[in-house]
Amino acid sequence: MKVVIPILSPALSGLVFGRDGSNPGVGGTQHVSVLLGQSLARRNPSWCVELVNQGPFLIEDAPQNLTLSTRSSINECLSDLNAQRNEVLLGTVSLLEHADHQLLADRASRVVAWSHHPYDFKLRILGSRSRLAATVSVGEYQFCSNGLRTSPHFLIHNIAVGLDQGSVSARTADQQPDTLRIGHLGALVEEKGFLDIAAAWSSVRTQFPNCELHVVGSGALYRDVPLHPQIPTDVAFAEKILEYIPENDIHLGRVVFHGRRGAEKADILRHCTLAIQNPRGSGEAFPGSVLECLSLGLPVVGSAAYGMWDFMRFFPELQIYSPRDIPERISYLLREPERLDFFRERSRQVAQEFIDKSSEIVDLWTQLFLRVAANSTDSMVQRNRPLAGRNRAYFWWQIWRRHWRIILADSPIGDGYRWLRR
Fold first, then answer.
1. Beta strands of 260-342 (E only): which ranges?
2. Which of 6, 41, 113, 404 is deepest in the core (most CB within 10 A)?
3. Is 215 left (phi over 0), alpha (psi -120 to 50) or beta?
4. Which has the closest alpha carbon to 183: 281, 276, 287?
5. Rg (Cα) of the chain, in Å, rounded?
6. Which pTM does this prediction carry?
7. Which residue in 335, 390, 404, 420 sits closest to 142, CA to CA?
8. Which residues pair with 276 in a beta bridge?
9. Per-residue pLDDT tens digits for 308-333
10. Cβ of 112: how many Cβ atoms within 10 Å?
């Protein structure tokens, strides 16, 4: 049995993934691809697991049956796929959408599409072209939002890895008594919501004059881009941020952009009191950045919309419905020291529950790949399918509203329209 996991990201070239499994400073999708490859190889020593990238990278203490290879495109990976040798390819939707249509259709029975986005219209387009062996969503809300599928559809959470918690004393060792340090972790790209945090910064500063904002992340987590000299993101997005965050706050260290960080990001966030993550939730599926904050005992203020629901459902008291709610939620959290301690402990517990599921997650992937090789994914039944805090009618309506053109095109109505156009 061979499982091929193409990553094909320039951001991985030259990086070293350490023994602890922490993210060395790449996008979450690329990171969990490496984690899954390692875990599958360790769980199934008779399998060959191959991670494919455009440039070489290293994994410390990699299993002997895990190979790292280089190819330039998803088409090369699909061309090498051989059903006769029980080979299966797990490809993200963002990679598979660039594949040659006929080549993908010819290999569809050995291809699993891995979606990391809610209401994934690219996944729906892929499904309209060919019936893949299976599709996998990584979060509960996202799974429901990607319903009405033609291919067998499953929910398998990402493998969760926390950050080194360190000691409680280390959290406040170098912090001034009256300073409130707020953290944010994530890629500095528009869809991850940092602009909303920047827009709320003046209100936060007004209510908490001695606060600092520590931002860990870069606009180059997914790809290499020219970065702004003050803010580690592309120039256009940096200029939008500077409309809300004064340059003087950056010069005085009130807002610190730490850029791309690996395991050392734990040292930065450990000294924070709380974190603010994606205030609108848009674009999130199963946000690893939230889990990493929680694993440090860092309470998260954020939206419960989209994939943020997977974590924020455990913290209804800290949920926000608009970026304007951020100062009030921070005030609620800090009003009583016992309350802050309570949320710190709950954060650690929630993160640990997800981390403890890693073995079960690898088992689900193993079962799925075996079924793909046996052409029997249709017979797999996933129990306890979630509704992500909404009823089924809500998701069906949202899916139809967002994707009605694609759904109609993949129906007999679409077939009739194309026949008339011939």
1. 274-277, 300-303, 319-320
2. 113
3. beta
4. 276
5. 22
6. 0.89
7. 390
8. 301
9. 999 999 999 999 999 999 999 999 99
10. 24
